[in-house]
Write a structure and sequence with these properties.
mainly alpha
Length: about 90
């Protein structure tokens, strides 16, 4: 089974024609990989479908724009994968 990072990197590579070897855990999706907002929407849709989740991208962008969070918290791949894994984790009661 592929890791979350490997799966997300594959999605980004196929959706944006970025060579897989250029994508690292420390890559910022927009700043380092030059993924534009429209392509990022396609990528998030694929991530949502693949992992059976819904990324709260609008909430993330609002938090960043309001100064409540750093963009790296959500858009550096290492952190994005942590967010995905958190959304995939079963809820504990």
């Amino acid at each position: 089974m592929a890791s979350t990072f490997e799966t997300v990197a594959g999605i980004i590579s196929s959706a944006s024609d970025i060579p897989l070897e250029r994508i690292t855990p420390d890559s910022h999706v927009m700043k380092d990989l030059d993924v534009d907002s429209l392509s990022f929407l396609d990528i998030t849709f694929e991530i949502d479908q693949k992992f059976g989740i819904q990324l709260p991208v609008e909430e993330w962008l609002a938090a960043v724009n309001e100064g409540k969070a750093n963009g790296a918290d959500y858009f550096v791949l290492r952190n994005l994968c942590t967010q995905i894994d958190g959304l995939r984790a079963p809820a504990t009661v």
